[in-house]
Amino acid sequence: MTDLGRLYDEIRVSIGRLIEPGESVIEHDDGSTATYLVPSLLNQLRQAVYNGRDPHGRRSSGVAAPLNLDAVDLLQTVRSGAWDMATRWDYRGIIRIEDQLAHVQVEACRCAEPDTVSWVASTTAGWVKSIGGFLDPPRPLELVAPCPACGVRTVYRPDSSGEAVRVAALSLSPDGCICLACKYRWPQTHFRHLATVLGIKFEWDLSHSEEGG
Question: Which positions fall inside the DUF7341 domain (predicted)?
Answer without folding.
Answer: 4-135
